[in-house]
């Protein structure tokens, strides 16, 4: 039996990142392709590639890469451009692709390193492995991958600033330890009508007024996840206001303040892909201060106008998908999801809106920068945060797993003391570009 195994490593570029600041360059490892392989063989080979590359590179592989590939596969771009967009999302230095073809007589292994932006072969290695089984191939290919060094300094890099990115592009900024920050989506400039357009809302959603966002900005693709927040806490030793004070409000038939409840223990099971909860506005600001210091980038909370602009994503209906809540579009009390009225859902459990943002309706309330005001009379028309009013209370948007469908409408709004946390409160990032 004979396999042909080919791994293609493409040179890529970073966005706003000093590549010399990190000990290892990054590799985005794509799924292995091929013919004649048994079920699971491709995954085994991918792991072998990953193990070999990890000796010299920081490797991104598995579900986080496959999710991006699936997302960009539905976009109207050619294969090369879509691959570049995947690279942009990870801000990697390289991407890797394995191709395996089964032939008689043994295995032919080939490692090729290529710059996808220049279509230039940099390094090629080949081996023949006769009378070998798959396990022999795995071992030999792991060794070959480990010695296939890509000299980053020899590649001509393409400089792409965030201001040059187009709406819908996703990026991540590097933290000081070389890991990746939260995923951010570029939001276009534009104008929209803000407030109770349908006429079914409360007075605090009126008067309807036009807001103009003069330049693109970025918003978190999802709410800040528990894993993101844990990295901040582990790095700084920060204790949330719930941990330092009287705890977090949880719902057990009624809302009660429990001393032992906080972001680590919000009253229901979570993993690192769930939105962080039991955080106050002050906690969110502390996380953002740390993230700004880690990345050197202008992270912040979104203004209320930016938030509604992002939630509507060009729509004028109650929800980004239409006038009715429907079934299975969000997590709320009556949205038809398996998490309704009980707990948070993992982020991105529902379809993204037209701007590429997930969970803008339901799941957790999201803190905004703005001070609370009981109506839109005198509200800014330029999309900036409203920093006067009842500033001991801050705006919350989006509704949550607990709220009824009417409370997760694009126009619905609330406000609460900036030092309080509930287990249906979280936050989402924004960034100036």
CATH superfamily of the largest domain: paralog of FGE (formylglycine-generating enzyme)
In the CATH scheme, the class of the largest domain would be Alpha Beta
Count of individual helical segments: 8
Q: So, CATH architecture of the largest domain?
A: Alpha-Beta Complex
Radius of gyration: 24 Å
State the shape.
Answer: elongated
Q: Biggest sheet, open or closed, and with what strands and sense?
A: 7 strands, mixed
DSSP E strands, number: 20
Structural class: alpha/beta
What is the name of the CATH topology of the largest domain? paralog of FGE (formylglycine-generating enzyme)
The count of domains is: 2
| Through-space gap between termini | 54 Å
How large is the share of residues in beta strands? 25-35%
The low-pLDDT segments are 1-23, 150-160
Structure, described:
- It is a single chain.
- This protein is an alpha/beta fold and 433 residues long.
- It has 2 domains: 2-160, Rossmann fold, CATH 3.40.50; 170-432, paralog of FGE (formylglycine-generating enzyme).
- Helices cover 21% and strands 25% of the residues.
- It contains 8 helices and 20 strands.
- Strands 1, 2, 3, 4, 5, 6 and 7 form a 7-stranded mixed beta sheet that branches. Strands 8-9-12-20-15 form a 5-stranded antiparallel beta sheet.
- Strand 6 (106-115) and strand 7 (120-130) form a beta hairpin.
- Helix 1 (41-53) packs parallel to helix 4 (134-147).
- The chain is elongated.
């Amino acid at each position: 039996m004979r396999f042909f195994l080919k791994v293609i490593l493409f040179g890529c570029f970073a966005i706003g990142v000093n590549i010399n600041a990190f000990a290892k360059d990054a590799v985005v490892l794509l799924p292995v392709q091929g013919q004649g392989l048994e079920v699971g063989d491709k995954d085994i080979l991918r792991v072998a590639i990953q193990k070999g590359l990890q000796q010299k590179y920081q490797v991104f592989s598995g579900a986080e890469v496959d999710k991006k590939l699936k997302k960009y596969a539905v976009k109207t771009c050619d294969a090369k451009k879509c691959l570049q967009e995947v690279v942009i999302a990870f801000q990697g230095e390289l991407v890797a692709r394995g191709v395996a073809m089964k032939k008689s007589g043994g295995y032919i292994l080939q490692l090729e390193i290529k710059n996808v932006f220049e279509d230039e072969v940099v390094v090629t290695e080949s081996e023949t492995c006769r009378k070998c089984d798959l396990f022999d191939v795995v071992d030999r290919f792991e060794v070959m991958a480990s010695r296939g060094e890509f000299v980053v300094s020899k590649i001509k890099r393409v400089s792409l600033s965030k201001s040059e990115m187009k709406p819908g592009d996703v990026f991540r900024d590097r933290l000081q330890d070389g890991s990746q920050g939260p995923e951010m989506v570029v939001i276009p400039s534009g104008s929209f009508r803000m407030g109770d357009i349908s006429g079914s809302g409360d007075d605090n959603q009126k008067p309807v007024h036009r807001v103009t966002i003069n330049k693109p900005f970025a918003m978190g693709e999802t709410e800040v996840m528990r894993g993101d927040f844990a990295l901040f806490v582990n790095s700084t030793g920060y204790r949330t206001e719930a941990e330092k004070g009287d705890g977090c409000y949880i719902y057990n038939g009624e809302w009660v303040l429990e001393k032992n409840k906080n972001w680590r223990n919000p009253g229901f099971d979570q993993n690192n892909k769930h939105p962080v909860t039991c955080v106050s506005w002050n906690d969110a600001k502390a996380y953002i201060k740390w993230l700004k210091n880690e990345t050197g980038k202008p992270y912040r909370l979104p203004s209320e106008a930016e938030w509604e602009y992002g939630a509507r994503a060009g729509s004028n209906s109650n929800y980004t998908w239409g006038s009715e809540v429907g079934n299975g579009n969000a997590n709320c009390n009556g949205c038809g999801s398996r998490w309704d009225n009980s707990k948070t859902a993992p982020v991105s459990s529902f379809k993204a809106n037209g701007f590429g943002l997930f969970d803008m309706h339901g799941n957790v309330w999201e803190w905004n920068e703005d001070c609370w005001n009981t109506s839109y009379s005198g509200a800014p028309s330029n999309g900036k945060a409203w920093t006067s009013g009842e500033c001991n209370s801050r705006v919350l948007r989006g509704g949550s797993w607990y709220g009824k469908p009417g409370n997760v409408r694009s126009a619905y709004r609330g406000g609460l003391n900036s030092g309080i946390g509930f287990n249906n409160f979280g936050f989402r990032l924004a960034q100036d570009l």
